[in-house]
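At this stage, I wrote out one protein, both as residues and as discrete backbone shape codes, and that material follows here.
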Amino acid sequence: MKGIVFTEFFEMIEQQNGLDEVDALVDGCELSTDGAYTSVGTYDFRELVVLVQKLGERSGIPVPILIKAFGEHLFGRFHQKFPEFFDGVEDAPTFLAGIEDTIHTAVRKLYPDAELPSFDVKVMECGGVDLTYSSPRPFADFAEGLIEGCLKHFGESRTVRRDEADGADGTSCRFVIS
């Protein structure tokens, strides 16, 4: 997993709870990196899982809610850091439809070692979106948060229905956005 995910996770915690909380969180986890990440480095996704679980213990907030909130936060940060991905995009369905061909293609050019999830996106005639998420990592909650962040960014009030694949354990699901 690219380090930007880790650095932005710490940024979100610092914004909400202060730097002392970030330090306490890292100190409370056994991490091979000791919590030192660079935005361009590549790290084991399990370290993020450990951090989120520890944050859940510390805050009393369920892990799925934390992960979704982080996805929403990260979408906003992506807009700030990578505005070129938003040029000429006027709505959430158009943005979501370009995840694989535009965003993931650009990420793979910059970071050939990036292990990205896959998104099969179909824009429906009614204007909704049928999006299937698949990844070896259990981050469907994170994907849902990114989708919610996308909808908020474009000021769209839509419903997101999530259908879990049997036995996928957060590694695969379908989102119907209407």
Remarks:
- Helices lie at 3-17, 19-27, 45-59, 63-81, 92-97, 99-110, 140-153.
